[in-house]
Amino acid sequence: MLTPQREALDRALAAITRQVLDLEAYARRVLEADAALRAQELMDGNDRYRDLLAQTGDVQGLTVLTEQVDALENALAGSLRDAIEAGRTLAVPRE
């Protein structure tokens, strides 16, 4: 006699568990994007170092710095894409 109620509770619990897991995944991706953004903000101050390396003729150092900035920008873009995609999977409950 209680089987339908138990099944309904099981389905509700499974749905809530999925929602929590989705929210946790979204939160992780947002944290990753935030960390990449903060790192990029720090790297934005590299103009002085880039100028110094250029003035001293340190081509290798300039290349390494440029590669690091490019890699960071790519990581930031990827993190933002992942966070946006994770956010799209979240369902907004309607009343």
Topology:
Blueprint lengths: L2 H41 L3 H10 L2 H30 L7
Structure explained in plain terms:
The protein is mostly helical and 95 residues long. The chain contains three helices and no strands.
Radius of gyration (CA) equals 23 Å
The major pleated sheet works out as:
none
Counting H and I runs of at least 4 residues, what is the number of helices? 3
The average pLDDT is 83
Which strand-content bin applies to the residues?
under 5%
Number of DSSP E strands: 0
**Principal-axes shape call:** rod-shaped
How far the N terminus sits from the C terminus, by CA atoms, comes to: 30 Å
SS content category: mainly alpha
What is the H/E order?
Answer: HHH
Helix content: over 70%
Low-pLDDT sequence parts: none
Brief descriptors of the model:
95 residues, mainly alpha, 0% strand
Brief summary:
With 95 residues, the protein is mainly α. It has helices at 3-43, 47-56, 59-88.
